[in-house]
Design a protein that fits this description.
The protein has 3 helices and 2 strands. By secondary structure, the protein is an alpha+beta fold.
């Protein structure tokens, strides 16, 4: 059996921080598709797609915080006021914030 010949590896180009930020801005704030943003910035589509997917995963990991390891419990309503704060974000940037007062 002949040994397989090794193919030379493709060159790896490190993308600058500014181009990554420009890509995120185009996709999340200006509404471009990943393909359109990649073409506008002259970036490889697969690289742009990987950057956007990694950014989304990072944002999801940041947002999930569990205060307790206990399962969810039901508690009877009391006379305590609860403030509920809902923050809407797009691409990690706050878009809207609303505070509700529950009694």
């Amino acid at each position: 059996m002949p040994k397989q010949q090794l193919q030379p590896k493709r060159p790896y180009y490190k993308m600058s921080f500014q181009s990554k930020e420009a890509l995120k801005t185009l996709v999340f704030q200006k509404g471009f598709t990943i393909k359109q943003a990649a073409q506008t910035l002259s970036i490889n589509y697969t690289s742009a797609k990987t950057i956007i997917l990694q950014f989304r995963e990072q944002q999801i990991r940041k947002c999930i915080k569990y205060l307790s390891m206990k399962p969810c419990l039901v508690k009877q309503a009391s006379k305590i006021k609860y403030n509920l704060k809902i923050i809407s974000q797009t691409g990690g940037v706050m878009v809207n914030e609303k505070i509700y007062c529950l009694r």
